[in-house]
Amino acid sequence: MKTIAALQALVTVASLDIEPTAAELDAIEQEMPLIRAEVELLDAQIMTIDRPANELDGRRIRRARNRVLAARRDLINRAGTEQTGGAA
After folding, report:
1. Crossing angle of helices 22-47/55-83, nearest 10°?
2. Confidence band (pLDDT; 50, 70, 90) for 10?
């Protein structure tokens, strides 16, 4: 019988107590409007899983998709102006 050994180091509790850095928290804060818009879209889609979508559901999903697209556009534009130093 062959023995099985772990090929990776063990994960300890100390390695899981890492807090996010300030830069990571700032990045999350910058992306929060997009995250919220994606959650709204997911909520709208979940509502129609167990029943056929009616006209109101279709509008809700369409508005949520538009919010996601607008949030992505704003995030990309904001990132683009930060990289160029604000000069467009």
Report:
1. 160
2. low
